[in-house]
Amino acid sequence: MMMGRLALVLLLAFASLQLFCFADDDNNEDDVVFYESFEESFEGRWIVSNKDDYKGLWKHSKSEGHEDYGLLVSEKARKYAIVKVVDEPVSLKDETTVLQFETRLQSGLECGGAYIKFLRPQEAGWKPEEFDNESPYSIMFGPDKCGTTNKVHFIFKHKNPKNGEYFEHHLKYPPSVPSDKLTHVYTATLKRDKEVKIMIDGEEKKKANFLAAEDFDPPLIPAKTIPDPDDKKPEDWDDKEKIPDPNAVKPDNWDEDAPMEIEDEEAVKPEGWLDDEPEEIDDPEATKPEDWDDEEDGVWEPPKMYNPKCAIGPGCGEWKRPMKSNPAYKGKWSPPLIDNPNYKGVWKAREIPNPNYFELDKPDIEPIAAIGIEIWTMQEGILFDNILIAKNEKVAKSYRETKWKPKFEVEKERQQAEEEASGLDFLASIKRKVFNALYQIADIPFLSNYKPQILDHVKKAEKQPNLTMGVLVSTVAIILTIFLKLIFGGKNQQCPRIETKPVPVVAETSDDQGSDGEKVEKAEKNEAAAAARRRRRET
Question: In which broad location class does this protein mainly occur, judging by the first location in its UniProt entry (predicted)?
């Protein structure tokens, strides 16, 4: 009897556990506030802006190589705007909120955005059919790339309770955009403990505190004091740290008129120099055009060519001694600088209490009432898919596992197969890993001052294969230099420049082409004369 009761208790406990696990595995679909798969056409459900600037054509299209549909940016060099109003505004207070969506840059992304704006209620003064870049949003999140800009934005707008103004607060040191053409999923998790977490493909890339001054620019909490705008620098304030020495006297042997260069008196004319031969001669094979009119076109002159006799000897024409640096040259004299005895330091306005200062225990971001995509891009082929707003991180993870990951794995396998078929799999794989590593290095916070330069040179290496190795080596070298300077060279180091030499372009030449200013001038005259003949024929 006792054993039977024990078995019944164990059975009930097991059943309860299974129900709990089932409920947990189901991830509570009630936590899904909004979800758009684009399996059905967006027409009639999403509203395309009727503003004149937004002429880009949205299409309901399959992702390349999949049966899965998405919302496609179909034309290059266009502005796009489309919006979907949610059934009920989504509160961002007191509970976790997850914003997640997929993008695939099927044609790459050289210059353009692929982000989403989570808009405030229409009471803020906007209309869906007039959605544009001025429409007020609560959060802007997603990839943006152009020139040295390469970041996954996270921007939130917050109202200052003292003056009622809204300010944009940008996440500092945001992660970079993946550089391939695969589908990627972007996740922003806003937590109850004032924290925001940014993930790409389920991997955490950035964590920040809404209230921390070091995480957002400008900080959400304003400074307690500000410089007094009415405070003025005193007229007798001397902020010159160094001054010319008033007691210094120019040395008697200082010759300001001595030239920088002088003739080399020791130079001797080379033997065999052809003094009587000009460097250029008339082209003997050139003939006067039959339609040349001396009255209209001027006196015809044959084009010049390099004198072949000059190639035999050391040189042609009048020989002149070469110039050399003048050892007596000193330039304009100026007195040396000395410490300024009246130096008072750098003047700063006095600090006064900030009238717009406020304190918060947690951010007060306004609710999300609509989801909008408002972008300008030079590339077509940007595909948006699986837009999700949820109140549970497990729900977002489940959608990544079931919606995004299968597509991503197929695309990776296809990319690898294409590389193997082209015979470039090893080199391409190495380069891609190096580029990804450099992008990750650029995301390191202590390199933030140098990030635009690093990204600029990585981008050059991606676009110009013949420069790849040189740029990569120089980029790695400069990163190591920065690292060593930061360790051993103190603070406030100057941002070094990475110089990349352009690849020389070899122009086609012919014997009758010159290289000096006179030949260019003659060529311009001949071109002008030819233009005159063309005009004469046309009339």
Answer: endoplasmic reticulum
84 touches 44 (CB < 8 A): no
CA distance 536 to 313: 46
Question: Given the DSSP bridges, would you call strands 69-73 and 382-390 parallel, antiparallel or unpaired?
Answer: antiparallel
Q: What are phi and psi of 457, to 5 degrees?
A: -80, -30
pLDDT score recorded for residue 193? 82
Closest CA to 440 of 214, 205, 203: 205
Q: Which residues contact 387 (CB under 8 A, 6 or more apart)?
A: 34, 35, 36, 100, 101, 116, 371
Residue 512, phi then psi, degrees to nearest 5: -95, 15
Per-residue pLDDT tens digits for 235-244: 999 999 999 9
Pairing label, strands 166-171, 216-217: antiparallel
Tell me which amino acid residue 31 is.
D
In 3D, which of 367, 365, 372 has the Cα closest to residue 387?
372
**Residues 5, 526: Cα–Cα separation, whole Å:** 112
Buried b (16+ CB within 10 A) or exposed e, 244-279: eeeeeeeeeeeeeeeeeeeeeeeeeeeeeebeebeb
Which letter, b or e, does each residue of 140-167 get, where b requires 16 or more Cβ atoms within 10 Å of its Cβ?
Answer: bbbbbbeeeebbbbbbbbbeeeeeeeee
With cut-offs at 50, 70 and 90, classify the pLDDT of residue 19.
very low
- 181-212 pLDDT, tens digit each: 999 999 999 998 899 999 999 999 999 999 99
Which of the four pLDDT bands, split at 50, 70 and 90, describes residue 505?
very low
Cα–Cα dist 396/392, whole Å: 7
The model's pLDDT over 284-302, given as tens digits with 9 standing for 90+, comes to 999 999 899 888 889 999 9
Among candidates 126, 530, 131, 107, which has minimal Cα distance to 297? 530
**Distant-in-sequence, close-in-space partners of 299: CB < 8 Å, separation ≥ 6:** none
Q: Taking the CA atoms of 302, 308, 311 and 313 in sequence, report the sign of the dihedral they define.
A: negative
C-alpha atoms less than 13 angstroms from C-alpha of 343 in its C-beta half-sphere? 10
Residue type, 111: C
Nearest to 244 by CA among 331, 333, 346: 333
Contacts of 444 (CB under 8 A, 6+ apart): none
Residue 363 backbone zone (phi > 0: left; psi -120 to 50: alpha; other: beta): beta
Of the candidates 300, 306, 249, the residue with the CA atom closest to the CA atom of residue 530:
300
| CA–CA distances in Å: residue 153 to residues 186, 199, 446, 458 | 11, 12, 19, 20
SS3 83: strand
pLDDT for 53 equals 95
List Cα–Cα distances, 150 to 164, 173, 176, 337, 519, in angstroms.
32, 11, 5, 44, 47
0.85 surpassed by pTM: no
- Cα separation, 279 vs 318, in Å, equals 10
